[in-house]
Amino acid sequence: MKPNTIVQFWNTPNLPEDISKLVATWKAQNPSMEHKLFSYDSALQFIAEHYGSEIKNLFESAALPAMQSDIFRVAYCLKMGGFYIDCGTRCNAPIQPLLSDDLLFLVRKWHGGIWNGAIGCNAGHPALEWIWDRIIQNLKARNSNDVWKLTGPLSFNQMVESKQFEDIVNVVEQPATKQYFDIVNELEHKKKHWSKVQEKQSVFKGNSELNADVDENKQQLTTPDVNNVESVTENNVPLTPADISSNVPSGQRISEVECEVEIAGGFERDDVSRLIVNVRNIVLSAGVVESFPLIINKRGNRAEVEFYEPKPNRHFPLSQFISSGNNGVTDYMLVMPEQMGSNTFYKLSSNDQADLITILTQLHIVFSKQQFSVKDNANVGSISNWCSSIERLILTFTEEKTKETESSAEKQESNIVVKNLALPENKEQEENVLLLCGNVVMDSKLQPQPFTIKLHADNKVSAVTSVELDNAELLPNKTQLLNAVASSLHKTNRNGKVLPYSLERWYYAVQKFSKEN
Fold first, then answer.
1. pLDDT by residue (tens digit) across 197-224?
2. What is the DSSP secondary structure assignment for residue 111, as one 8-state letter?
3. Residue ranges of domains in the chain, CATH in brackets
4. Are 109 and 118 in contact (CB under 8 A)?
5. Phi, psi at residue 501, to the nearest 5°?
6. Which strand (E) or helix (H) includes residue 483?
7. Would you say 401 and 357 are in contact if contact means Cβ atoms under 8 Å apart?
8. Number of C-beta neighbours around residue 273 at 10 A
9. N or C: which end of the chain has fewer CB within 10 A?
10. Is the pTM of the predicted complex or chain greater than 0.70?
11. What does the pLDDT look like over 238-292, one tens digit per residue?
């Protein structure tokens, strides 16, 4: 039987107005499901009743609301079953279609990490029990001052990566959940994010070794152990190369190339903060893996990316800048999310926009995994704060790219609509080949027809070289179908797979093929 209870947690009995409105959407969209909202006191009572005094004491030791919520959501779903969802989400449609009788429902966010903000299962699910055991071990050991590692998504990612439960876990890609619910980022309580709070205090109540914990945490940030498996984060995603570089030694696979980041300098203040890094081994659309400098600026809640400019023309191709290796301080290019319509982001080519997102994503992964080096003991403050700023930049730029793709799709006058585009679950993707399946509706009248399409590209995926289509009835409309597939690529369900080349890159390769043919 599918879970039939929606469970949410807020540490105080009275909800802030913005949260109250979001919680109401879950009740309104799911009238057939029971809705339970727990506060700290009712959650404590539940844990004491079902888990006993030892676990109750561990729950009481958690100093931060985010940590308390992490513990309770797993405790409830494991004991009672149900669908837990963060209060900072908006429900758009009934949630039941996402749930199943025997699978643990989880969400993989846009950056590749498993999110613990949505959990759906029946009571006693073994994969969730595995996660629960890890959380309890961490709480007993107090082996970190990082909520993310202690009680947050780390255990979820470790469970998925272990592949012990892959037959009974359903990991859904975030784009596939948007018709059901959205994550709302602009909320009042997020201005005091737990990642910032934990830098200033112990995450455990009554910890007399507060300063030692904080100092130790800072030491871990500046001297990371890249061989420590426990330091893997929710963004543990293999490098997604956009091209093959001449700097990669002959015989070395592109997936073996890892981004390297050196913190060269900067500072963190309340008004303006700056992070200066040297980046190398990022594979981009121009086929270069060069070393280049990059700056992230924070001005209050605003973040921006700064590149040094190699040419007098202020708005230059990003690839020219990176390949030049220029590090002059006086001339630069600034890219920021604010005022997007007149922003430098739009003055970049489409490939350069995609490259910018790739650079920021790889920077975020390296920082989250704490696998960077530090030059001359540079002190830039909280790495987790910088991760949050970079994540906001990626989200904004990615949303703009999605809008651009959707706008392009709307402009196409075609009698063909592609739905349910996905990577086949049981087939491996070949290098320089993209295999897709889906359904096509023609003239909005006929029943959907299933199809499989195979795109072959050159070794840089800069152009599609040939197309194979399995449905003979669709062959007369092959060109229109290809354009419809390209327009829907950003909605592709990846079924948990990581492609050697981004879908963004395939999109432009298909567009080029269509124009030439």
1. 776 778 888 653 333 333 333 333 222 2
2. T
3. 5-214 (3.90.550.20), 237-410 (no CATH), 412-516 (no CATH)
4. no
5. -125, 140
6. helix 478-488
7. yes
8. 21
9. N
10. no
11. 222 222 233 333 344 433 456 788 888 888 777 778 888 888 877 776 665 567 7
